[in-house]
Amino acid sequence: MEYTELLERQIIGRLRVDNPWWTEGEIPFFYKDMTPRLYLDIFYPLVKDTDLKRAMILMGPRRVGKTVMLYHTIQRLIDDGVPAQNIIYISVETPIYNKIYLEQLFNLSKQTLGKIDGDQSTYYVFFDEIQYLKDWEVNLKSLVDTYKNVKFVASGSAAAELKKRSDESGAGRFTDFSLPPLTFYEYIHLKGYGQLMIPQTMSWSNESVPYWGTVDVEKLNSLFIDYINFGGYPEVVFNEKIQENPGQFIRHDIIDKVLLRDLPSLYGIQDVQELNSLFTMIAYHSGKQFSYESMSKESGVRKDLLRKYIAYLEAAFLIKVVHRTDDTAKRYQREVSFKIYLTNPSLRCALFQPIRETDEEIGDLIETAVYAQWIPRQGTDISFANWRLNSKEHGEVDIVGIDVAKQKPHWGVEIKWSDRYAEYPGELESLLWYIPRNGLKEAIVTTKTLTIDKQMDFVRLHFLPVACYAYTVGENTLKQAQEFYGL
């Protein structure tokens, strides 16, 4: 038997294994029994819409549930009456598919199913981990242009690189969809604790603004600490064995594969140990202010390389660089310092050890967790404010929302894991300076357990538990995604 014929038979055998619904009529129970992510309700209608002749590109970091979402999408298509044999799933990273074009794989799938040439049925074709195929974007664009009756869906873990290639080659042909690590809102619902939350309203600028309170703040805080330690990845949330040693799972499956395989292969990085050391340093100090000068001294990495490495880590959705503004929301012309946050606080806990609420670093991890709720937002400009008060002191506000059109702040939030400031609000000197100076009248300050409003001379402060704030922001991030995709 010739090699080509043997390879073709092996590929057909693999396709049958990967598409059990062709004979069983449903996805494997392993996937079917998993609770879907809430983002599925946004993603699925975009996949189901065949009128728009565009491929869907599902992007996101490793282990956030992209493959599971593809399987859940497949099951919903079957439940909605799409013939199971018109749904094709291909994991591009499977070694046997190496160097084989997407169109060949698609045609081999139809051949396996006994579909005739010229068949005009509607197909749904899923290419998982597409970044492993060279020039995938050219291949996929060609497929979209050629097969008008097929909805193509691709997923990949190298989010920024995928987006770059999608923008360059897929203009008008691809729709990008970002799947972030779990928000705290999703975490609570996946764990089945939605009954802890109760709808509330606060008066903000003479309008009634909804937010979420809780019937049991102590329980919610306990869940928030669990979320910080284990909550970014669906698999860790439901697997107590992984929680006993999250470092092994996250370090091997997420960090090592990204740092040692994905980034070096995408960007030609030579010294992976240098990149690994830099990420470890950033992870330990998540939420701290950095400068290229100080980072270069501490890590021993040249400043020009540092800039590249940070860009690569941000491209891999491991970190988020947050820029600094002054006390009037202006960007510093020469940016000497900035903050770096992990996109998911459980990355830090996996590298070192789970955090306890009494640990010294808890404040930075709480702040990281709150930023993690904001980071997935499309088109939202957030920064932190930091300015010199005198030769020795600086003022700072933790999160500032910038009005993009006016380039002015339109809200500010101070993140605290303490009830002290609700009792002594005058100690919030930076916030009380910043808010009226920028023509604002209100601000949010998070607490550990207290919910209360305090009217100061020129500023009304809304105090609420940080876990309630994170939950509310997480829900609003999900709603913003629905609006962004026109749903």
Describe this structure as you would to a colleague:
With 487 residues, the protein is of the alpha/beta class. It is built from 21 helices and 17 strands. It has a seven-stranded mixed beta sheet with strand order 10-12-13-14-15-17-16, with helices on both faces. A five-stranded parallel beta sheet has the order 2-3-4-1-5, sandwiched between helices. β13 and β14 (408-414) form a beta hairpin. The mean pLDDT is 88.
How is the secondary structure organized here?
Layout: H1 3-18, H2 21-24, H3 29-32, H4 40-48, E1 55-59, H5 66-79, E2 87-91, H6 102-112, E3 123-128, H7 136-146, E4 150-156, H8 159-169, E5 174-178, H9 184-190, E6 197-204, E7 207-214, H10 217-230, H11 234-238, H12 240-244, H13 246-267, H14 272-284, E8 289-290, H15 292-299, H16 303-315, E9 319-322, E10 324-325, E11 338-342, H17 346-351, H18 362-374, E12 382-388, E13 394-403, E14 408-414, H19 420-423, H20 429-437, E15 442-447, E16 452-455, E17 460-465, H21 466-484
Parallel strand pairs: 1-4, 1-5, 2-3, 3-4, 10-12, 14-15, 15-17
Antiparallel strand pairs: 6-7, 8-11, 9-11, 12-13, 13-14, 16-17
**Helical region count?**
21
Mean pLDDT: 88
What is the structural class? alpha/beta
Largest sheet: 7 strands, mixed
Shape type: globular
Radius of gyration: 24 Å
Write down how many β-strands occur, each being a DSSP E stretch of 2 or more residues.
Answer: 17
Share in helix: 40-55%
Strand order of the largest sheet: 10-12-13-14-15-17-16
Task: Note the beta-strand portion.
Answer: 15-25%
The span between the termini is: 53 Å
Low-confidence stretches: none
